[in-house]
Amino acid sequence: xxxxxxxxxxxxxxxxxxxxxxxxxxxxxxxxxxxxxxxxxxxxxxxxxxxxxxxxxxxxxxxxxxxxxxxxxxxxxxxxxxxxxxxxxxxxxxxxxxxxxxxxxxxxxxxxxxxxxxxxxxxxxxxxxxxxxxxxxxxxxxxxxxxxxxxxxxxxxxxxxxxxxxxxxxxxxxxxxxxxxxxxxxxxxxxxxxxxxxxxxxxxxxxxxxxxxxxxxxx
Length: 219
Hints:
single chain, 7-stranded mixed β-sheet
């Protein structure tokens, strides 16, 4: 992973970013590849200027349109889970949002596909990822419930908003041997991982979480 692309970008000190990584390590994140990607990524660029001073807190922050930039711990936990059984060649992210999670993934896997239902968020994320020279991330404006059939199958899929249950279309687009990491549920949500094996799908509960709900359609 060549993090030199980010040198000189932004306003924060190396010390501030390392402090965030240290907090994530203390919380149990152990994959150094993930921690290095988080350390290297200028998270403040994915926020409005008014919130930039809070960018390296371990907290979720609003990005408009009723959406949030996920807490760094959750980003790290989900990414670590995605990589736990080997680096997938092709990943689908459902819910681009600010583009931050896609930026992390693009440093760690060869191909990232990311879909966003809100046009303004999609356009902003696309511009930002291009500015960061993360050219292996492909973005599309569309309904996440439908996934990205033209790009399927995917070795791994990650959802950044919570459906009541993972949509069947997404499970169908998961390659054999693949894994899907998602928050799932309504009032009570859980972070889960689905694995597609020779005997079908297996579902594992990881921990309780709180995410914005996953919505269908586009706007």
